[in-house]
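Quarterly update from the structural biology core.
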Amino acid sequence: MHLSLILITIITISMQEGAFMGRILWYAAVTWDYIRQMLPGILLTAAVFFAVRPWRKKRLVRLELTSSPRREAALLLFAAFCAGLAALTLFPSGFWETFLRIGLSPEGEKRLAVLFPRVEFLAAVRRINWIPSFLLGKTLGAWSAYMVLANTLIFLPVGFFPALLWRQGSCRRSILAGLFASGSIEFLQLFVGRATDVDDVILNTAGAFLGWLFYLLSARLAPQFTRTFQVEVRHGRETGDPKPAPGTGAGQL
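Predicted structure, tokenized:
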């Protein structure tokens, strides 16, 4: 009897663990699919960043400023993320996969029109979801829970990197940046056949706020480290004075 109970317990736990691992693998597969859709924007931005870097270095010299390799890496990461986010959200669903499949086909040029299907603007406006369903306490399924988490986390860089890379970062600016960026994305999605949802705006803005909180925590715990991501002058860091004395400060980029 005891042996039967032990076997049943082991089988139940194994099934639960199997279901859990299956869900984790499903989340990972969906996340990787989104990352693949971001790659075209990321790669293009990286190429442009390195192409204009010599010009940027000359401009920094003229302004008597220096940007450390650490700051340059963070700037590249943020720029690539923004371009990747645009590639993910401002094109029709499945655009990049379809683009590669059609572009490599013999009749690719004739079939490229399917990449941008005709969208009825007024019909798209009528389909806008103005009710924040997740705030109403509705039960979240696996997909809904994933979207809540993803829409929040994907905007963490929007609140974090501007405060890290440029002076005078604030909670209000991070929130406004998240709200403006998310609102712009949702509006532009009306023209590419994507869903426009007030949930996304709320969650994206919350993600930007959390990004600023993460920056604030980093600045409190490691102020010297976070300051290394700020632009520097040749003889000391910026003082914040809009009209600094020579060698003690300069304008920001």
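DSSP finds ten helices and three strands in the chain.
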